[in-house]
Amino acid sequence: MYIVTAKEMYEVDRYAMEDIGISGSILMESAGRAIAEKMKPLIGTTDRIFVLCGSGNNGGDGYVVARTLLNEGYDVTAVQVGRNLTADAALYQQLYNRLGGHVADVEADTFLSSLESADVIIDAMLGLGVRGALRSPYTETIQAVNSTDALVLAVDLPSGVPADDAADFREAIQADYTFIIEAPKPTAFIQKTAPFYGKWETVSIGLPAAYLGRQAGARTWTKEDVKRTFPVRQPFSHKGTNGKGFLIGGGTEMPGSVTMASMAALRAGAGLLTVGTLPQVIPSVLSHLAEATFTSLAGENGVLVDTENLDVSAYDAVVAGMGMGRGEDTAALTKRVLEQAEVPVLLDADGLYHIKSDLELLRNRQAPTILTPHPGEMAMLLDVKVPQLLEQPFELARKFATVYQVYLVLKGTYTIVTAPDGTQLVNTTGNPGLGKGGSGDVLSGILLAMLMQHEDPLEAIANGVYVHGRAADVLVEDAHSQQDLLATDLMKGLAKVFRDISL
Description:
2 domains; eleven-stranded mixed sheet; 20 helices; UDP-N-acetylmuramoyl-L-alanine:D-glutamate ligase; alpha/beta
């Protein structure tokens, strides 16, 4: 499923109308009728329905919805919100009127109070172009709608929600359902704005699919994508062909982090795994994991420190960061890994803090570099506040990944994977049960295994993120709750996920 910005959607509309020759009125008719069909199972013919129509294309869609429902016997009243209708919107208002429809005036003294009698409110006021504070009469109308008990259905976006980010977001219609035209917009996946959509689904209106795909800078990564790209183990493969990974981490205060990452790497298919950690941490990891081998690394005061004789040349991929500590001597070890390794290197947790003051190291690497920050760590790397990051995750992630030429895994409810060329993939698996310490360590281990088994790093990362989230979903569906799920439980969910992928 493609995800498009307002600019990208406008370009697709332009191409459809100017290059293909599909008139704007035909697209509006297609949109309104398709959305009306999607709405019908949610409403009854005896429900009192108000359709709030703006003056632009969103309003035109609303008049088509109103006319379609009216023609099929529903109790519909259209409401004009805003003046100076576009030509297409005015045309469909006229057609609705000619069918016997009534258009109420939002500015009438009794209108806002009359909303209290509505069973269903259809929001078709504002579309893609919303930014910043809204003006009257939209502000009063939105507040009135949100104070009712009516079922609220939105066309394309809930009015007030911007398409691209939440930087200037103020207030919006709180929809129960949103019927998105052709492709979701980034705000359907942003923490601050996603709840306003309610449940949502896309509605195809006949826009050129191939061109939409070429314009879209982001898309969701689905089960079908995973099945299409997931590597198949060959009959004569062996532990060497399935990847030899090196996992560096673990201090005396956090031995569990490297333990969970190591367990996940092996469960996700790594052929061989060497854990580089403090000598006193090895017994703790070994008690949970007999299959790994170990390299003792230098340490001081219970944390890892730099060592000149570190050799990473024998490995197919390296992960560093979890439980290491954030001191300068420890940071020097991480930087040495980045400078020496000619294979993919993934940095997580403390490793992200190690490179904050020397980001040029990332740009100078020839092999892929993967960063897996949660929002707090990403905000630290960008020198911004967490709220700003959460308002503009797509834009800020793309800027960082392209400037420093890294694969960026911005973790969250909808994890955004960004490639060095700016391509973005959004993961929709997972649930709040993952909001526990250690979940990120498990993800890093899974990603290590995936990077050694795929030829394409972006596919490897996207598949790893999908598998991680899907394991949590499987466990909550079958045996656990979101409350009791632990990071170590995820290893038990991997087997079912992998079996499902292979079917």
